[in-house]
Amino acid sequence: MGKLEDVEAEKKVWESDDAWELRKAFMLAHYDDYPKIQLQCLSQLFINVTLLGCEYSESLMQKIRTMGAGIAANKDRTKTGSYVKASAAKKRQAVKPSDLEGAPVEAKREKVEEAPVSDHEAYNERLEKLRSTLSLTPHHLTGEQMMKAATNGCLMKWYVKKVNQKIEIYIDRYVAFRHTFSQYCVDIHDCAVNALIESILSCTAALNDDGDEIRFDGVPADECYAKSVERRLGKIKGGLGNGTHTLKAFSTQLESVNMSLIQNTKKLEGWSQQLDLVTADLLLGSRILSSTECTKPAMATIADEMCAQICQLILTNNATVINSMKSHSSLAFQV
Which SS3 state, helix, strand or coil, does residue 175 take? Predict the structure, then answer.
């Protein structure tokens, strides 16, 4: 693959044409000077500084200015207009109805077009920048390391609030994730952070009308986890359609979307047991085993049968994930 083809492959689906042209020119200019991952990060910083007015340390700002010298000036940016910092946008005065009384139609149109960017819109732009930055963060890092690197790069803050099994995650002062896990879920912190990262990368984030929470594709923070798990199950349909549906094969597919398959057994009256298959605190399936089915070989066969049924449910798009109040899982299928 040549230099141009390699750089062209870096275009993100959410990038505007003018932003991409600037970033592409930057990457082509320094293609031979930096490793690929470092060049990706530097190119995004260049866009953040040039188009969004972001500010970083003086040494980094000087580096970006030096590397970007002449690039921005050579690109036509008239298609999308000028960009302003959020702080500058806040200082613009809002247009009052009285300002337009008696004004010519052209003047009214001009003033309306120059209306300031609202606080919501300005923050939504920052959320879009967070998604772009997070997508360039090395994915070999832990979820917490990825969020820390991305929010630091966007001059944002994030923190996790945990009370017993309830997890809330805030970005700046807005709640972005809220879920109460069951006692059977071991790594609730990792589950929550990974679900938030998946939501940021897969959805459009925006403040709600009340301005107290961040919603992904309009989904409330209370449902963020359920929708993230549902999306990840949808992402493995391609793999499920091309392979076997055994416990091992299904587990491998789940691991590809950062989920793991767990078998829970519970002793009942007599010699019978209850076998549950759970992933990410989602109850996938449950079956009562008779005394003759409680042997290891029999349970393995039954688990394979249950996985085949679950895979078929996912493949036929009949698996909607909802919040649940069951004692052994916090999510369930709504068939």
Answer: strand
